[in-house]
Amino acid sequence: MYQREYEKRIRVGLIGAGSHAYRNLLPALHYLPVKLVAICNRGREKLDKTGEEYPCHCYTSSEEMYEKENLDAVIISVSPQMHPVLAKDALARGIHVFLEKPPAMSAQEIRELAEAKNGCVVSVGFKKACMPAALKAREIAYSSSYGGLKSLLAVYPMSMPAQGEQILEKREFTNWLGNGCHPLSFLLSIGGRVRAVTALCGAEGQGCVVLEFENGVIGNLHLADGPHPVEQYQLFAEKWNLFIENTDTVVLNRGIPFQYAYTDNFAPEGDESGAIIWRPQNCLATLENKALYLQGIVQELEIFCHAVLNGEDTGYTSLEFALEVMKVYEAALRSAGRRIEIERG
């Protein structure tokens, strides 16, 4: 749907008018049940230029915005160092919060946010767990027709920083925090909670992060840093495998009747075997081929909006899910080749 088609909308303020918010979050509001009433940004130049495009009030102080505007919710897209601070301030005022990823600098800060919810909805922007390709992957992995998931693979353009313990202690921001949550959130949305993590990396940080899920599934995040970014996901089971290429192509390989040395037809009769391919069509200017939908940006915000309006579950954008992602993030930094068990309780 589109914003003007919703009968009931929530009054929203945006904190942070940086690149991501400007390119992705603000355009995504066009498809959601919201009314943007205010934008807050410390820098006046970006604030004023952004405010020229949207019919809302502009503030350089969130406190002033809260005092002058009657907000139902706030979307916060700043630094992970400031996310918990700004979120707690909004929650104390009874305002629902959507946090862009990464939501914080540590798992402990997520725990503290959960304690500060004050009866409000708090969602985190894990778009890779909300994108259509991820929904199709979960449907296949846990369906009665397929099921039996054994292992997972994610290939993502990044590396693991050295001296992980020091990074955690000093609360340093790295790309592993900023973007590692993308493949991690996808993997955890498929495999569930993780029992243990082992990171095996070379001198420059390329390598793999092995996830042992509590359900017995094994996950591998291949750190493929380099000049040609690539994003791939694969799910493996006994009788099928599923491949996701760059978030816009999903291939379900069901195999064919096969006998080594005798099978002579790669496309046997019938439609019960072989591959099924899903991809957006680009003939028309439709929603399903827009990056905002392919990447899960509209969907992550839609989950938040419907939770505020209808009290629905926030699922893979919840603080509970964010805590699991942050635990794995921290364990991988600490690993340095050692097996790190995830603490429970």
UniProtKB/TrEMBL annotation:
Pfam families: GFO_IDH_MocA (PF01408). InterPro entries: Gfo/Idh/MocA-like_OxRdtase_N, Gfo/Idh/MocA_Oxidoreductases, NAD(P)-bd_dom_sf. This is Gfo/Idh/MocA family oxidoreductase. GO terms for molecular function: nucleotide binding. PANTHER family: BILIVERDIN REDUCTASE A. Residues 10-126 form the Gfo/Idh/MocA-like oxidoreductase N-terminal domain. It comes from the Bacteria. It comes from Eisenbergiella massiliensis. The lineage of its organism: Bacteria, Bacillati, Bacillota, Clostridia, Lachnospirales.
